[in-house]
Amino acid sequence: MIYMDNVAGTKPDKRVVEKMLPFIEEKYGNPSAHFYPLGRESFEAIEEAREHVASLINAKSDNIVFTSCGTESNNLAIKGVAFNSEYEGKKHIIISEIEHYSVQNTALKLTNLGFEVTKLKVDETGLVSLEDLRNAIREDTLLVSIMHANPEIGTIQDIEKIGEICKEKGVLFHVDAVASCGHVEVDVEKFKCDLLSIASQNFYGPKGVAALFIRDGVKLTPLFDGGFQERGYRSGSENVPAIVGMGEAARIAKEEMHIYAPKMIQLRKKLWDGLAKMFDFLHFTGHPEQRLPGHVSFWIEYIEGESLLLSYSLKGVAAASGSACSSNILAEDEDELEASHVLTAVGVPNDICAGSLTFSMSKYNEEKDVDYVLEITPAIVNRLCEMSPYYNKK
Amino acid sequence: MAKGPYSEKVMDHFMNPRNMGEIEDANAVGEVGNPACGDVMKLYMKINDEGIVEDVKFKTFGCGAAIASSSMATELIKGKRVEDVLRLTNEAIVEALDGLPPAKIHCSVMAEEAIEAALKDYYQRIGKDPKIVDEMKEKIKTEIAS
Protein backbone atom coordinates (compact mmCIF):
# COMPACT_ATOMS: atom_id res chain seq x y z
CA MET A 1 0.00 0.00 0.00
CA ILE A 2 1.33 3.43 -0.95
CA TYR A 3 0.05 5.69 1.79
CA MET A 4 -0.84 9.20 0.65
CA ASP A 5 -3.48 10.11 3.21
CA ASN A 6 -1.16 11.63 5.77
CA VAL A 7 -3.54 14.47 6.68
CA ALA A 8 -5.66 11.71 8.22
CA GLY A 9 -2.66 10.57 10.28
CA THR A 10 0.98 9.72 9.68
CA LYS A 11 2.82 6.47 10.20
CA PRO A 12 4.49 6.65 13.63
CA ASP A 13 8.28 6.91 13.53
CA LYS A 14 9.95 3.70 14.78
CA ARG A 15 11.88 5.70 17.37
CA VAL A 16 8.57 6.98 18.72
CA VAL A 17 7.19 3.48 19.11
CA GLU A 18 10.39 2.29 20.82
CA LYS A 19 10.21 5.17 23.26
CA MET A 20 6.58 4.37 24.08
CA LEU A 21 6.82 0.61 24.62
CA PRO A 22 8.38 0.60 28.13
CA PHE A 23 5.55 2.86 29.33
CA ILE A 24 3.00 0.32 28.17
CA GLU A 25 4.67 -2.61 29.90
CA GLU A 26 7.05 -2.10 32.79
CA LYS A 27 6.85 1.66 33.42
CA TYR A 28 3.16 1.69 34.26
CA GLY A 29 3.14 4.07 37.23
CA ASN A 30 0.55 6.81 37.51
CA PRO A 31 2.29 10.19 37.13
CA SER A 32 0.16 11.60 39.97
CA ALA A 33 1.75 9.10 42.40
CA HIS A 34 4.89 11.02 43.36
CA PHE A 35 5.88 9.01 46.43
CA TYR A 36 7.41 5.98 44.75
CA PRO A 37 9.80 5.69 41.79
CA LEU A 38 7.34 4.04 39.41
CA GLY A 39 4.99 7.03 39.59
CA ARG A 40 7.78 9.61 39.54
CA GLU A 41 9.26 7.97 36.47
CA SER A 42 6.01 8.48 34.58
CA PHE A 43 5.75 12.05 35.84
CA GLU A 44 9.26 12.85 34.67
CA ALA A 45 8.62 11.24 31.28
CA ILE A 46 5.58 13.47 30.78
CA GLU A 47 7.55 16.56 31.73
CA GLU A 48 10.32 15.60 29.31
CA ALA A 49 7.70 15.19 26.58
CA ARG A 50 6.24 18.57 27.50
CA GLU A 51 9.67 20.15 27.01
CA HIS A 52 10.01 18.62 23.54
CA VAL A 53 6.50 19.66 22.47
CA ALA A 54 7.09 23.20 23.77
CA SER A 55 10.41 23.39 21.97
CA LEU A 56 8.81 22.36 18.67
CA ILE A 57 6.47 25.36 18.72
CA ASN A 58 8.84 27.79 20.50
CA ALA A 59 6.84 27.87 23.71
CA LYS A 60 7.58 27.43 27.41
CA SER A 61 6.78 23.98 28.72
CA ASP A 62 4.50 25.47 31.40
CA ASN A 63 2.21 26.63 28.61
CA ILE A 64 1.61 23.15 27.20
CA VAL A 65 -1.44 21.09 28.21
CA PHE A 66 -1.79 17.53 26.93
CA THR A 67 -5.18 16.46 25.57
CA SER A 68 -6.55 13.41 23.77
CA CYS A 69 -6.80 14.78 20.21
CA GLY A 70 -6.90 17.91 18.07
CA THR A 71 -10.66 18.06 18.44
CA GLU A 72 -10.34 18.22 22.21
CA SER A 73 -7.65 20.89 22.00
CA ASN A 74 -9.88 23.02 19.76
CA ASN A 75 -12.88 22.50 22.04
CA LEU A 76 -10.84 23.38 25.12
CA ALA A 77 -9.46 26.53 23.50
CA ILE A 78 -12.80 27.89 22.26
CA LYS A 79 -15.18 26.77 25.02
CA GLY A 80 -12.49 27.36 27.62
CA VAL A 81 -12.36 31.10 26.98
CA ALA A 82 -16.07 31.38 26.14
CA PHE A 83 -17.09 29.92 29.50
CA ASN A 84 -14.62 31.96 31.54
CA SER A 85 -16.04 34.83 33.60
CA GLU A 86 -12.92 36.89 32.88
CA TYR A 87 -14.33 37.57 29.42
CA GLU A 88 -17.94 38.18 30.42
CA GLY A 89 -19.76 40.40 27.92
CA LYS A 90 -17.56 39.37 25.01
CA LYS A 91 -19.89 37.23 22.98
CA HIS A 92 -18.48 37.38 19.46
CA ILE A 93 -16.26 34.75 17.86
CA ILE A 94 -14.63 34.90 14.43
CA ILE A 95 -13.69 31.80 12.47
CA SER A 96 -13.16 31.11 8.77
CA GLU A 97 -15.42 29.17 6.42
CA ILE A 98 -12.84 26.42 6.03
CA GLU A 99 -12.16 25.54 9.67
CA HIS A 100 -12.20 21.93 10.80
CA TYR A 101 -15.55 20.74 12.18
CA SER A 102 -14.08 20.76 15.68
CA VAL A 103 -13.77 24.56 15.40
CA GLN A 104 -16.87 25.22 13.28
CA ASN A 105 -19.27 23.10 15.32
CA THR A 106 -17.81 24.19 18.64
CA ALA A 107 -18.24 27.86 17.75
CA LEU A 108 -21.72 27.29 16.33
CA LYS A 109 -22.81 25.41 19.46
CA LEU A 110 -21.96 28.52 21.47
CA THR A 111 -24.63 30.44 19.54
CA ASN A 112 -27.15 28.52 21.71
CA LEU A 113 -25.62 30.37 24.67
CA GLY A 114 -25.94 33.82 23.16
CA PHE A 115 -22.66 33.95 21.28
CA GLU A 116 -22.49 35.32 17.76
CA VAL A 117 -20.19 33.73 15.19
CA THR A 118 -18.78 35.45 12.11
CA LYS A 119 -17.48 33.11 9.42
CA LEU A 120 -14.88 34.82 7.25
CA LYS A 121 -15.02 33.98 3.57
CA VAL A 122 -11.88 32.76 1.81
CA ASP A 123 -10.70 33.45 -1.73
CA GLU A 124 -10.48 30.75 -4.38
CA THR A 125 -7.06 29.67 -3.09
CA GLY A 126 -8.40 29.30 0.45
CA LEU A 127 -6.85 32.43 1.96
CA VAL A 128 -8.67 34.59 4.51
CA SER A 129 -8.75 38.30 3.65
CA LEU A 130 -6.86 40.31 6.26
CA GLU A 131 -9.09 43.27 5.46
CA ASP A 132 -12.23 41.20 6.11
CA LEU A 133 -10.75 40.07 9.42
CA ARG A 134 -9.91 43.62 10.45
CA ASN A 135 -13.43 44.75 9.58
CA ALA A 136 -15.07 41.82 11.37
CA ILE A 137 -13.43 42.47 14.76
CA ARG A 138 -15.81 44.31 17.08
CA GLU A 139 -15.79 45.75 20.58
CA ASP A 140 -17.29 42.52 21.90
CA THR A 141 -15.09 40.11 19.92
CA LEU A 142 -13.68 37.52 22.29
CA LEU A 143 -11.73 35.22 20.02
CA VAL A 144 -10.47 34.72 16.48
CA SER A 145 -9.86 31.07 15.56
CA ILE A 146 -8.14 30.42 12.22
CA MET A 147 -6.35 27.26 11.13
CA HIS A 148 -2.72 27.46 10.04
CA ALA A 149 -3.05 24.97 7.18
CA ASN A 150 -6.10 23.34 5.71
CA PRO A 151 -5.80 19.54 5.47
CA GLU A 152 -8.12 19.27 2.49
CA ILE A 153 -6.76 21.90 0.12
CA GLY A 154 -3.32 22.37 1.69
CA THR A 155 -3.45 26.17 1.86
CA ILE A 156 -1.32 27.83 4.55
CA GLN A 157 -2.78 31.08 5.91
CA ASP A 158 -0.84 34.32 6.46
CA ILE A 159 -1.02 33.42 10.12
CA GLU A 160 1.61 35.91 11.33
CA LYS A 161 -0.29 38.81 9.81
CA ILE A 162 -3.54 37.50 11.28
CA GLY A 163 -1.81 37.34 14.67
CA GLU A 164 -0.62 40.93 14.32
CA ILE A 165 -4.16 42.15 13.63
CA CYS A 166 -5.56 40.24 16.63
CA LYS A 167 -2.84 41.65 18.89
CA GLU A 168 -3.36 45.16 17.60
CA LYS A 169 -7.13 44.86 18.19
CA GLY A 170 -6.75 43.21 21.58
CA VAL A 171 -8.66 40.00 20.83
CA LEU A 172 -7.64 36.48 21.74
CA PHE A 173 -6.22 34.43 18.87
CA HIS A 174 -6.43 30.65 18.58
CA VAL A 175 -4.59 28.75 15.84
CA ASP A 176 -5.52 25.22 14.82
CA ALA A 177 -2.08 24.02 13.71
CA VAL A 178 -2.99 20.32 13.66
CA ALA A 179 -2.37 19.88 9.92
CA SER A 180 0.81 21.96 9.74
CA CYS A 181 2.81 21.19 12.89
CA GLY A 182 5.79 18.98 12.12
CA HIS A 183 5.65 19.81 8.40
CA VAL A 184 6.26 23.56 8.38
CA GLU A 185 7.45 25.95 11.08
CA VAL A 186 4.93 26.56 13.85
CA ASP A 187 6.08 29.29 16.25
CA VAL A 188 3.73 30.73 18.84
CA GLU A 189 5.86 33.88 19.15
CA LYS A 190 5.86 34.58 15.42
CA PHE A 191 2.14 33.77 15.23
CA LYS A 192 1.42 36.04 18.24
CA CYS A 193 -1.28 33.57 19.23
CA ASP A 194 -2.78 33.02 22.66
CA LEU A 195 -3.87 29.46 22.04
CA LEU A 196 -2.60 26.84 19.59
CA SER A 197 -3.69 23.25 18.95
CA ILE A 198 -1.41 20.50 17.68
CA ALA A 199 -1.88 16.72 17.37
CA SER A 200 0.75 14.03 17.55
CA GLN A 201 -0.69 11.79 14.81
CA ASN A 202 0.07 14.45 12.20
CA PHE A 203 3.82 14.44 12.84
CA TYR A 204 4.69 10.76 13.10
CA GLY A 205 3.48 10.27 16.66
CA PRO A 206 0.68 8.11 18.06
CA LYS A 207 -3.05 8.83 17.77
CA GLY A 208 -5.06 9.73 20.86
CA VAL A 209 -2.74 12.45 22.12
CA ALA A 210 -2.51 16.15 21.33
CA ALA A 211 -1.67 19.42 23.04
CA LEU A 212 -2.95 22.92 23.56
CA PHE A 213 -0.61 25.86 24.02
CA ILE A 214 -2.08 28.40 26.45
CA ARG A 215 -0.25 31.70 26.73
CA ASP A 216 0.38 33.15 30.21
CA GLY A 217 -2.50 35.31 31.29
CA VAL A 218 -5.16 33.59 29.17
CA LYS A 219 -8.04 32.48 31.40
CA LEU A 220 -9.45 29.12 30.49
CA THR A 221 -12.28 27.13 32.07
CA PRO A 222 -11.62 23.38 31.80
CA LEU A 223 -14.07 21.19 29.89
CA PHE A 224 -14.36 18.74 32.76
CA ASP A 225 -13.44 18.73 36.41
CA GLY A 226 -11.46 16.17 38.34
CA GLY A 227 -8.12 15.66 40.00
CA PHE A 228 -6.29 18.72 38.67
CA GLN A 229 -3.93 16.91 36.31
CA GLU A 230 -2.37 19.19 33.67
CA ARG A 231 -2.58 22.12 36.11
CA GLY A 232 -6.34 21.68 36.26
CA TYR A 233 -6.88 22.42 32.59
CA ARG A 234 -7.35 18.78 31.70
CA SER A 235 -8.21 16.50 34.61
CA GLY A 236 -7.95 12.75 34.15
CA SER A 237 -5.16 10.20 34.31
CA GLU A 238 -2.63 11.02 31.63
CA ASN A 239 -2.09 8.63 28.72
CA VAL A 240 1.59 8.30 29.57
CA PRO A 241 2.75 6.10 26.63
CA ALA A 242 1.01 8.35 24.12
CA ILE A 243 2.35 11.55 25.68
CA VAL A 244 5.86 10.07 25.71
CA GLY A 245 5.37 9.19 22.04
CA MET A 246 4.21 12.69 21.21
CA GLY A 247 7.25 14.13 22.98
CA GLU A 248 9.60 11.93 20.98
CA ALA A 249 7.77 12.78 17.75
CA ALA A 250 8.13 16.48 18.57
CA ARG A 251 11.86 16.05 19.29
CA ILE A 252 12.39 14.29 15.95
CA ALA A 253 10.29 16.82 14.04
CA LYS A 254 12.26 19.72 15.51
CA GLU A 255 15.58 18.10 14.56
CA GLU A 256 14.68 16.65 11.16
CA MET A 257 11.89 18.74 9.62
CA HIS A 258 14.41 20.83 7.69
CA ILE A 259 15.68 17.59 6.10
CA TYR A 260 12.41 16.01 5.01
CA ALA A 261 10.30 19.10 4.20
CA PRO A 262 12.32 20.02 1.06
CA LYS A 263 12.06 16.40 -0.13
CA MET A 264 8.30 16.51 0.31
CA ILE A 265 8.12 19.76 -1.65
CA GLN A 266 10.02 18.06 -4.48
CA LEU A 267 7.59 15.13 -4.44
CA ARG A 268 4.66 17.53 -4.43
CA LYS A 269 6.07 19.37 -7.44
CA LYS A 270 6.63 16.15 -9.35
CA LEU A 271 3.10 14.89 -8.67
CA TRP A 272 1.53 18.29 -9.37
CA ASP A 273 3.39 18.76 -12.66
CA GLY A 274 2.71 15.19 -13.74
CA LEU A 275 -1.03 15.49 -13.14
CA ALA A 276 -1.21 18.93 -14.74
CA LYS A 277 0.16 17.52 -17.99
CA MET A 278 -2.35 14.67 -18.13
CA PHE A 279 -5.80 16.21 -18.41
CA ASP A 280 -7.16 19.63 -19.19
CA PHE A 281 -10.21 18.80 -17.10
CA LEU A 282 -8.22 18.30 -13.85
CA HIS A 283 -8.29 21.37 -11.60
CA PHE A 284 -6.04 21.91 -8.59
CA THR A 285 -7.43 23.27 -5.35
CA GLY A 286 -5.81 25.43 -2.70
CA HIS A 287 -2.92 27.84 -3.03
CA PRO A 288 -0.35 26.92 -5.71
CA GLU A 289 2.71 27.82 -3.57
CA GLN A 290 1.58 28.66 -0.05
CA ARG A 291 0.66 25.09 0.83
CA LEU A 292 1.68 22.08 2.88
CA PRO A 293 4.89 20.44 1.60
CA GLY A 294 3.61 17.03 0.48
CA HIS A 295 0.10 18.08 -0.40
CA VAL A 296 -1.62 17.89 -3.81
CA SER A 297 -5.39 18.35 -4.10
CA PHE A 298 -7.61 18.62 -7.14
CA TRP A 299 -10.96 17.78 -8.67
CA ILE A 300 -11.68 16.12 -11.98
CA GLU A 301 -14.62 17.00 -14.15
CA TYR A 302 -17.02 14.14 -15.01
CA ILE A 303 -15.80 11.89 -12.18
CA GLU A 304 -17.09 11.35 -8.67
CA GLY A 305 -14.49 11.36 -5.88
CA GLU A 306 -15.41 8.16 -4.09
CA SER A 307 -15.11 6.15 -7.29
CA LEU A 308 -11.66 7.72 -7.75
CA LEU A 309 -10.72 6.83 -4.17
CA LEU A 310 -11.89 3.25 -4.61
CA SER A 311 -10.01 2.91 -7.89
CA TYR A 312 -6.76 4.13 -6.36
CA SER A 313 -7.32 1.94 -3.31
CA LEU A 314 -7.76 -1.13 -5.51
CA LYS A 315 -4.41 -0.24 -7.10
CA GLY A 316 -2.80 0.03 -3.67
CA VAL A 317 -2.85 3.81 -3.13
CA ALA A 318 -4.53 5.42 -0.10
CA ALA A 319 -5.83 8.96 -0.59
CA ALA A 320 -8.79 11.11 0.54
CA SER A 321 -11.79 12.79 -1.06
CA GLY A 322 -14.12 15.62 -0.12
CA SER A 323 -17.03 14.26 -2.09
CA ALA A 324 -20.44 13.79 -0.47
CA CYS A 325 -20.40 10.10 -1.36
CA SER A 326 -17.16 9.51 0.51
CA SER A 327 -18.04 11.79 3.42
CA ASN A 328 -19.67 9.35 5.80
CA ILE A 329 -19.79 5.83 4.44
CA LEU A 330 -20.98 4.47 7.79
CA ALA A 331 -23.86 6.94 8.08
CA GLU A 332 -27.31 5.53 8.71
CA ASP A 333 -28.94 7.93 6.30
CA GLU A 334 -28.13 9.57 2.96
CA ASP A 335 -28.99 12.93 4.55
CA GLU A 336 -25.74 12.62 6.46
CA LEU A 337 -23.75 12.66 3.21
CA GLU A 338 -22.39 16.12 2.68
CA ALA A 339 -20.02 17.63 0.14
CA SER A 340 -16.95 19.28 1.63
CA HIS A 341 -17.63 22.69 3.15
CA VAL A 342 -14.02 23.59 2.33
CA LEU A 343 -14.43 23.02 -1.40
CA THR A 344 -17.74 24.87 -1.39
CA ALA A 345 -16.04 27.78 0.39
CA VAL A 346 -13.33 28.08 -2.28
CA GLY A 347 -16.02 28.26 -4.94
CA VAL A 348 -16.10 24.71 -6.29
CA PRO A 349 -19.76 23.98 -7.11
CA ASN A 350 -21.30 21.14 -5.10
CA ASP A 351 -21.81 18.84 -8.06
CA ILE A 352 -18.17 19.35 -9.06
CA CYS A 353 -16.90 18.92 -5.46
CA ALA A 354 -17.93 15.36 -6.02
CA GLY A 355 -14.75 14.74 -7.98
CA SER A 356 -12.24 15.94 -5.43
CA LEU A 357 -9.15 14.06 -4.34
CA THR A 358 -6.30 14.80 -1.92
CA PHE A 359 -2.88 13.16 -1.96
CA SER A 360 -0.93 14.06 1.17
CA MET A 361 2.59 12.68 1.38
CA SER A 362 4.91 12.18 4.33
CA LYS A 363 8.63 11.81 4.94
CA TYR A 364 8.23 8.12 4.16
CA ASN A 365 7.06 8.65 0.58
CA GLU A 366 9.58 8.26 -2.21
CA GLU A 367 9.84 9.34 -5.82
CA LYS A 368 8.82 5.84 -6.93
CA ASP A 369 5.49 6.31 -5.12
CA VAL A 370 4.79 9.42 -7.17
CA ASP A 371 5.90 7.63 -10.35
CA TYR A 372 3.46 4.82 -9.60
CA VAL A 373 0.55 7.20 -8.97
CA LEU A 374 1.29 9.01 -12.22
CA GLU A 375 1.54 5.69 -14.03
CA ILE A 376 -1.85 4.36 -12.88
CA THR A 377 -3.78 7.64 -13.05
CA PRO A 378 -4.55 7.80 -16.81
CA ALA A 379 -6.20 4.36 -16.84
CA ILE A 380 -8.21 5.14 -13.69
CA VAL A 381 -9.43 8.49 -14.99
CA ASN A 382 -10.15 7.24 -18.51
CA ARG A 383 -12.15 4.29 -17.21
CA LEU A 384 -14.31 6.49 -14.97
CA CYS A 385 -14.72 9.09 -17.72
CA GLU A 386 -15.97 6.35 -20.04
CA MET A 387 -18.63 5.51 -17.46
CA SER A 388 -19.70 9.12 -16.94
CA PRO A 389 -22.76 10.50 -18.74
CA TYR A 390 -21.13 13.94 -18.54
CA TYR A 391 -17.99 13.05 -20.42
CA ASN A 392 -19.42 12.95 -23.93
CA LYS A 393 -21.13 16.25 -23.39
CA LYS A 394 -17.78 17.98 -23.71
CA MET B 1 -7.30 -8.09 4.91
CA ALA B 2 -9.95 -5.87 6.52
CA LYS B 3 -13.22 -5.73 4.63
CA GLY B 4 -14.25 -2.39 3.18
CA PRO B 5 -17.71 -0.87 3.31
CA TYR B 6 -18.84 -2.74 0.20
CA SER B 7 -19.55 -6.41 -0.51
CA GLU B 8 -17.39 -8.35 -2.94
CA LYS B 9 -20.24 -8.27 -5.42
CA VAL B 10 -20.45 -4.48 -5.29
CA MET B 11 -16.70 -4.25 -5.84
CA ASP B 12 -16.91 -6.71 -8.72
CA HIS B 13 -19.62 -4.66 -10.45
CA PHE B 14 -17.70 -1.46 -9.76
CA MET B 15 -14.50 -2.81 -11.24
CA ASN B 16 -16.14 -4.82 -14.04
CA PRO B 17 -19.39 -3.02 -14.81
CA ARG B 18 -21.79 -4.96 -17.03
CA ASN B 19 -23.54 -3.26 -19.94
CA MET B 20 -21.67 0.01 -19.58
CA GLY B 21 -22.03 2.39 -22.49
CA GLU B 22 -24.67 3.88 -24.77
CA ILE B 23 -27.12 2.50 -27.33
CA GLU B 24 -27.20 4.70 -30.40
CA ASP B 25 -30.63 3.55 -31.57
CA ALA B 26 -32.19 3.20 -28.11
CA ASN B 27 -35.94 3.61 -27.98
CA ALA B 28 -36.02 4.16 -24.21
CA VAL B 29 -33.70 6.61 -22.46
CA GLY B 30 -34.00 7.75 -18.86
CA GLU B 31 -31.77 10.06 -16.88
CA VAL B 32 -32.15 10.63 -13.14
CA GLY B 33 -30.08 12.43 -10.54
CA ASN B 34 -29.80 12.27 -6.79
CA PRO B 35 -29.67 15.71 -5.19
CA ALA B 36 -28.28 14.24 -1.96
CA CYS B 37 -24.88 13.59 -3.46
CA GLY B 38 -24.99 14.69 -7.09
CA ASP B 39 -25.02 11.18 -8.61
CA VAL B 40 -26.53 10.88 -12.10
CA MET B 41 -27.53 7.71 -13.94
CA LYS B 42 -28.45 7.53 -17.60
CA LEU B 43 -30.07 4.33 -18.86
CA TYR B 44 -30.52 3.26 -22.49
CA MET B 45 -32.82 0.43 -23.58
CA LYS B 46 -33.65 -1.19 -26.87
CA ILE B 47 -37.12 -2.68 -26.53
CA ASN B 48 -38.33 -4.90 -29.39
CA ASP B 49 -41.85 -5.24 -30.85
CA GLU B 50 -42.68 -7.99 -28.35
CA GLY B 51 -41.98 -5.59 -25.48
CA ILE B 52 -38.77 -7.36 -24.49
CA VAL B 53 -35.65 -5.46 -23.41
CA GLU B 54 -33.27 -6.66 -26.09
CA ASP B 55 -30.38 -4.53 -24.99
CA VAL B 56 -29.64 -2.20 -22.11
CA LYS B 57 -26.69 0.02 -21.25
CA PHE B 58 -25.89 2.64 -18.64
CA LYS B 59 -23.64 5.58 -17.91
CA THR B 60 -23.27 6.76 -14.33
CA PHE B 61 -21.60 9.64 -12.58
CA GLY B 62 -21.37 8.47 -9.01
CA CYS B 63 -19.75 6.45 -6.27
CA GLY B 64 -18.95 2.75 -6.22
CA ALA B 65 -22.45 1.91 -5.00
CA ALA B 66 -24.07 3.96 -7.77
CA ILE B 67 -22.00 2.29 -10.48
CA ALA B 68 -22.58 -1.19 -9.02
CA SER B 69 -26.34 -0.55 -8.66
CA SER B 70 -26.51 0.62 -12.28
CA SER B 71 -24.57 -2.39 -13.51
CA MET B 72 -26.65 -4.87 -11.49
CA ALA B 73 -29.93 -3.25 -12.56
CA THR B 74 -29.04 -3.69 -16.24
CA GLU B 75 -28.25 -7.35 -15.63
CA LEU B 76 -31.56 -7.89 -13.88
CA ILE B 77 -33.67 -6.36 -16.67
CA LYS B 78 -31.89 -7.53 -19.78
CA GLY B 79 -34.07 -9.94 -21.75
CA LYS B 80 -37.13 -9.28 -19.59
CA ARG B 81 -40.58 -8.11 -20.69
CA VAL B 82 -41.42 -4.50 -19.88
CA GLU B 83 -44.11 -5.61 -17.41
CA ASP B 84 -41.52 -7.70 -15.56
CA VAL B 85 -38.91 -4.95 -15.71
CA LEU B 86 -41.29 -2.76 -13.75
CA ARG B 87 -41.44 -5.39 -11.04
CA LEU B 88 -37.78 -4.78 -10.24
CA THR B 89 -37.47 -2.96 -6.93
CA ASN B 90 -34.49 -1.24 -5.42
CA GLU B 91 -34.58 -3.85 -2.64
CA ALA B 92 -34.00 -6.56 -5.23
CA ILE B 93 -31.00 -4.66 -6.58
CA VAL B 94 -29.58 -4.33 -3.05
CA GLU B 95 -30.17 -8.02 -2.40
CA ALA B 96 -28.50 -9.00 -5.66
CA LEU B 97 -25.47 -6.93 -4.63
CA ASP B 98 -25.31 -8.70 -1.24
CA GLY B 99 -26.28 -5.46 0.48
CA LEU B 100 -25.30 -1.80 0.50
CA PRO B 101 -24.41 0.50 3.42
CA PRO B 102 -27.56 2.30 4.72
CA ALA B 103 -26.37 5.67 3.43
CA LYS B 104 -25.97 4.18 -0.05
CA ILE B 105 -29.43 2.63 -0.44
CA HIS B 106 -30.40 5.72 -2.43
CA CYS B 107 -28.06 4.52 -5.20
CA SER B 108 -30.30 1.50 -5.76
CA VAL B 109 -33.37 3.75 -5.67
CA MET B 110 -31.74 5.85 -8.38
CA ALA B 111 -31.35 2.74 -10.54
CA GLU B 112 -35.02 1.85 -10.08
CA GLU B 113 -36.01 5.42 -10.94
CA ALA B 114 -33.81 5.41 -14.04
CA ILE B 115 -35.63 2.29 -15.29
CA GLU B 116 -38.99 4.00 -14.72
CA ALA B 117 -37.80 7.15 -16.50
CA ALA B 118 -36.59 5.13 -19.48
CA LEU B 119 -39.88 3.25 -19.72
CA LYS B 120 -41.84 6.51 -19.59
CA ASP B 121 -39.73 7.69 -22.49
CA TYR B 122 -40.45 4.41 -24.30
CA TYR B 123 -44.22 4.74 -23.93
CA GLN B 124 -44.09 8.37 -25.01
CA ARG B 125 -42.19 7.37 -28.13
CA ILE B 126 -44.82 4.78 -29.07
CA GLY B 127 -47.58 7.33 -28.58
CA LYS B 128 -48.83 6.28 -25.18
CA ASP B 129 -49.27 8.33 -22.05
CA PRO B 130 -46.12 7.87 -19.93
CA LYS B 131 -48.35 7.83 -16.84
CA ILE B 132 -49.01 4.21 -17.74
CA VAL B 133 -45.71 3.42 -16.00
CA ASP B 134 -46.96 4.89 -12.72
CA GLU B 135 -50.25 2.98 -13.06
CA MET B 136 -48.44 -0.29 -13.73
CA LYS B 137 -46.10 0.31 -10.76
CA GLU B 138 -49.10 1.02 -8.54
CA LYS B 139 -50.81 -2.15 -9.70
CA ILE B 140 -47.70 -4.21 -8.97
CA LYS B 141 -47.42 -2.70 -5.49
CA THR B 142 -51.06 -3.57 -4.76
CA GLU B 143 -50.49 -7.11 -6.04
CA ILE B 144 -47.46 -7.53 -3.80
CA ALA B 145 -49.27 -6.09 -0.79
CA SER B 146 -52.19 -8.48 -1.16
TrEMBL record, chain A:
Pfam families on file: Aminotran_5
Cofactor names: pyridoxal 5'-phosphate
Keywords: Iron, Iron-sulfur, Metal-binding, Pyridoxal phosphate, Transferase
Domain Aminotransferase class V: residue ranges: 2-373
Annotated EC: 2.8.1.7
Keyword Transferase: yes
GO molecular function terms noted in the UniProt entry: cysteine desulfurase activity; iron-sulfur cluster binding; metal ion binding
Catalytic reactions of this protein: (sulfur carrier)-H + L-cysteine = (sulfur carrier)-SH + L-alanine
InterPro entries recorded: Aminotrans_V_dom (IPR000192), Cysteine_dSase (IPR016454), PyrdxlP-dep_Trfase (IPR015424), PyrdxlP-dep_Trfase_major (IPR015421), PyrdxlP-dep_Trfase_small (IPR015422)
Gene3D superfamilies found in the cross-reference section: Aspartate Aminotransferase, domain 1, Type I PLP-dependent aspartate aminotransferase-like (Major domain)
Described purpose of this protein according to its UniProt entry: Catalyzes the removal of elemental sulfur atoms from cysteine to produce alanine. Seems to participate in the biosynthesis of the nitrogenase metalloclusters by providing the inorganic sulfur required for the Fe-S core formation.
Family statement drawn from the similarity comment of this UniProt entry: Belongs to the class-V pyridoxal-phosphate-dependent aminotransferase family. NifS/IscS subfamily.
Name of this chain's protein: cysteine desulfurase
Organism of origin: Deferribacter desulfuricans (strain DSM 14783 / JCM 11476 / NBRC 101012 / SSM1)
Underlying gene: iscS
From TrEMBL, chain B:
Pfam families cross-referenced by the UniProt entry: NifU_N (PF01592)
Residue stretches making up the NIF system FeS cluster assembly NifU N-terminal domain: 6-127
UniProt cross-references to SUPFAM superfamilies, sorted A to Z: SufE/NifU
InterPro entries noted in UniProt: NIF_FeS_clus_asmbl_NifU-like (IPR017787), NIF_FeS_clus_asmbl_NifU_N (IPR002871)
One GO MF term: iron ion binding
Gene Ontology biological process terms in this record: iron-sulfur cluster assembly
Designated name of the protein: Nitrogen-fixing NifU domain protein
Lineage of the organism: Bacteria, Pseudomonadati, Deferribacterota, Deferribacteres, Deferribacterales
